Amino acid sequence: MEKILKQQPGNHIEISEQDGLPLEQRRWAIVAVSIGVAMSSLDTAIANTALPAMASQLQATAADSVWIVNAYQLAMVATLLPFAALGEILGYRRVSIFGLFLFTLASLACACAWNLPTLLVARLFQGVGASAIMGVNTAMLRAIYPARILGRGLGTNALVVAVAFTAGPSVASLILSAWSWPWLFAINVPLGVIALLLARKVLPVTRQAAHKFDALTAIYNVGAFGMLILTIGDAAHLVEWRRLVIEVVVTAAFFILLLRRQGGHQAPMLPVDLFRRPLFALSSLTAVCTFAAQSLAFVSLPFYFQMVLGRSAVETGFLITPWAVLVGIMAPIAGRLSDHYPPGLLGGIGLAVLSGGMVSLILMPENPSTFAICWRMAVCGIGFGFFQAPNLKAIMHSAPPERSGGASGIIATSRLIGQASGAALVAFCFTISSNNGELYALMLGAGFAVAGSIASFSRLFVTPLSFRKP
Predict the structure, then answer these.
(1) Same domain? 209 vs 220
(2) Contacts (Cβ under 8 Å, ≥6 apart) of 74
């Protein structure tokens, strides 16, 4: 049960026991949260499709234009845990509202950018805003929903994240078919304003932690995770080995400094104390493996559909749609089931289905029909949709309420590290084989899904099975 701060007449703030928000306020609160999550998730994927158009109009090389995507991801991964820690100290509501404000303002700046450097700066700020939104997202859901239906709320959130990420290519293709690339960012502005106004009115004010924010720890965290993502990307592109060694050493140094600095802290920014809980550690590992598998598929399949099968960019977007649709159908169902059955069981089954779906994609005939592609994508969507909400619930329930911020930060960090690793591995597959890169990427994706399924089933042996029967 969450302790919620209620604003009383005369600006008096009273602490009261409340299990979630009243129904009407809860509905509006989840709308505000969902808009922010959808925008930040969509912008993780939407820029990939538009890179050629942006590079052409900004007179940038293909290699330089990749930083439009990398800058956003680097900013997000590097600042997620600091914002999660700030959420525990300042309150999740304040951090979420700040993230919505910065993301909306930065989206406007992206739409108005006149050259590549200005766009990259705007994308960095946009990534920081998205990080503030995502870093406290799950913790905010824990304050919004009553504990008895938290799985349902997490299922809705999983639906929003998955559909936004998977719909990115389709949305980008549709926008580019009618307008120029700045509209990819301009559409965020009215949505951001709506979410901001709603958030200020309906998001709950949660209890604030007594410990202080450590700025030096935050700097070490930014260096550690920023260098980690940069090193993974460079390794996948097989950069010169001396440069890679330097990056590995610098990354390790930042992590050592971070761990030493936060040693003994009651609520460390990188929550190593939570990783001592087997359920939390296995759930985080499951998330990394699953999002790596998804990223391996989503980055490699467009190349296969367009370069091998000769489909258009718009057709490619719609061929990916069955995955998103089935995630949308299964996520709420899995969320409700997670209120009754162990997440380890549900997640393990879902990831086994995901692995089977990816294997079926590998075994497609040389010239598959649209139906042959779509039913395989649908199987993958069923498996992925069955995993996410139960896994989110397992992570949040394995952390004490006062550490919801740290747990929420790890959820978002695990997702982004998985996505970044998957994308890097696709680049590695294309580097070692230009002809069969898509096949190797799908094979790796199926392997990650199997690893995630094993990690998920392992949770059945480390947590009491105290779940209500339907």
Answers:
(1) no
(2) 124, 127, 226, 229, 230
Distance (Å, rounded) from C-alpha 14 to C-alpha 40? 33
DSSP calls for 398-440:
TS-GGGHHHHHHHHHHHHHHHHHHHHHHHHHHHHH-TTTHHHH
* CATH number of the domain where residue 92 is located: 1.20.1250.20
Regarding whether 35 and 145 lie in a shared domain, the answer is yes
Residues 328 and 363 in one domain: yes
End-to-end CA distance of the chain: 22
Cα separation, 380 vs 448, in Å, equals: 13
What amino acid is encoded at 85 in this protein? A
User: Does residue 40 sit within a domain?
Assistant: yes
Three-point CA angle 202, 207, 209, nearest 5°: 140
Domain range for 225: 215-261
Residue 5 forms part of a structural domain:
no
For residue 4, being part of any structural domain is answered with no
Number of Cβ within a 10 Å radius of residue 173? 19
Burial class (CB in 10 A: 0-12, 13-18, 19+), 319: buried
For the whole prediction, is pTM greater than 0.90? no
Block mean pLDDT (10 aa), the chain, length 470:
42 43 76 83 70 71 67 82 82 88 93 86 91 82 76 71 69 75 86 89 74 81 86 79 90 90 75 83 91 86 80 76 82 82 90 94 89 93 86 80 73 82 81 80 93 92 49
Does residue 71 sit in the same domain as residue 130? yes
